[in-house]
Amino acid sequence: METRGLILLSSLLLPLLLTTTSAQLRSDFYKNTCPNVEALVRSAVTKKFQQTFVTVPATLRLFFHDCFVRVCRLIFMIIIFWLLLGTFWLARCYQFIAEKDHPDDISLAGDGFDTVIKAKAAVDNDPQCTNKVSCADILALATRDAVALAGGPSYTVELGRRDGRISTIAGVQNNLPHPDFNLDQLNAMFSSHGLTQTDVIALSGAHTVGFSHCSRFSKRIYRFSPQNRIDPTLNLAYALQLRQMCPLKVDPRIAINMDPTTPQTFDNAYYRNLQQGKGLFNSDQVLFRDTRSRPTVNLFASNNEAFKQAFASAITKLGRVGVKTGNQGEIRRDCTRVN
User: Is residue 206 part of a domain?
Assistant: First the structure.
């Protein structure tokens, strides 16, 4: 009875905690300390985007992972920094937090990391802004700008986050959605962060850009059953195409676009793909297969503006999760390490 009471109390307090935290964030937080912060970040992200489109999915994924694992405090970047240095034992742990099985393939995380580093340098190069803007806020702004550059929505970013001071990999495992998740598992994980089923579906739409590695979905096209059949929920022609691109002996360097139709445009093609059985992960396809989520998928598939509005709302909510404000954290001088 006591346990049930604690669970009920937690469920009642969570919305209050989220509301209290988000109330401390505001879009004009740097109005008096760094009024040009948005222009400075946008310029840096645009330059990076012009160098490589991977900037978009990498930055977006970094923001998602950071908020899901370390609740929007940019502790995640410290982990990635050491991975880029090639530290083996960290790389072994990293396989649980990246959307890929092979820790050596960190190109997405690397480009997201580089985007934030360059944006931080651009901000700090302005004497009025030096060491006044948190890395967490820079990532939030860079994510918005990267999405907009790819054709997605440009939304208002709430600012005022502080960077966390503690960085460990403990607890990362099982804190991110798995490609094999069903709708109940997705809803449960997102709900723990105050996000709804509609938020789940909208944020999943980020898979309209970027790519994954063959090992993340190979069992859907080779080992779905003891007879090595293809997952029957997967479009057969699409599955055979995936087999051609992903040999049975999977090369970890092979990358496949998450969206086979418009992989470099942030649009609602992802949902139209789901209607055709072309969701790369089971956690993608289940959104159309499950009758509880199918109506929302159909709405987003037919209305790109509805998708963009829902995505903007969902990623704004995600950006509020467990943030530190005021004196709770710090403003890092170097995004790869605590002060």
Answer: yes
